[in-house]
Amino acid sequence: MNRFQFVEDHKDAYGVKRLCEVVEVARSSFYAWLDSAGRRAAKATDDAVLAARIRVLQDPAQGGDRAYGAPRITADLNDGVPVAERVNHKRVARVMREHRLAGIRLRRRVKTTIPDQSARRFPDLIGRDFSVGDPGRRYVGDITYLPIADGTNLYLASCIDLGSRKLAGWQVADHMRTELVEDALRAAHHDRGSLVGAIFHSDHGSVGGFNRSSQHPLGITGGMGDGKQGLGEEDQ
Q1: Segments making up each domain of the chain, as ranges
Q2: Run of H or E including 43
Q3: Is 232 exposed, middle or buried (0-12, 13-18, 19+ CB in 10 A)?
């Protein structure tokens, strides 16, 4: 609460002098604040009118956009308006802040597929046929970003069995390096027992040194318990 308002609210019970000493304000400042009450009320009314105009500009039903921030709102408010009647961008920003009208920040979309023109290209072994077939024969995968409240991202690598439409393996990490996809495939290997001879379909992209290039046969080497499971040479 404003200290001057506190004094005003309790002055009849405790007196102005004592309250000003308690809240550490000069009595002269308090009385100056009282004298400006009319100006403050007029300013509050003007701000309320401006806030209503801003709401219209942000209302999608009236052609607006909630993502509009102070710069865009100021430009729209001043469009075609005489210089003497234009509103200052600082005032617009203050009113938007005080009336909780700050523009919604649109999160920048993270690009998880980055084409690598020099990467080895694999043939399309499934012929773009994503219909259901025998389980354990054809898998599809991709990387999806998961936005976190603190502004960072996590990345989900998935491996789905086209035959059953079930998630066979997945992995989440804070990076898009090779091991993210490798770990998702290892999880699928653990779930299905073997991926030997199966086809893994992914997009044409290369992130962090891993060539996610179209479709190619999978080859999981090593036994389930020897700690040496990994992608075959042709998949790295």
Answers
A1: 3-98, 138-235
A2: helix 37-58
A3: middle
DSSP 83: G
Query: Percentage helix, strand, coil, to 5, in the chain?
Result: 40, 20, 40
Distances (CA, A) of 169 to 89, 198, 216: 52, 14, 17
pLDDT digits (tens, 9 = 90+) for 149-187: 777 889 999 998 888 888 999 999 998 888 888 899 889
- In whole angstroms, what separates CA 205 from the centre of its chain? 23
Residue-wise pLDDT tens digits, 30-50: 999 999 988 988 999 999 999
Residue 49's SS3 state is helix
Two structure tokens written together for 149: 């409240």
Say if residues 60 and 66 touch (Cβ distance below 8 Å): yes
Contacts of 109 (CB under 8 A, 6+ apart): none
* Amino acid making up residue 56: V
Q: What's the confidence (pLDDT) of residue 116? A: 54
Q: What is the DSSP letter of 209?
A: T
Are 168 and 147 within 8 A, CB to CB?
Answer: no
- Measured distance CA(125)–CA(138) in Å, rounded: 10
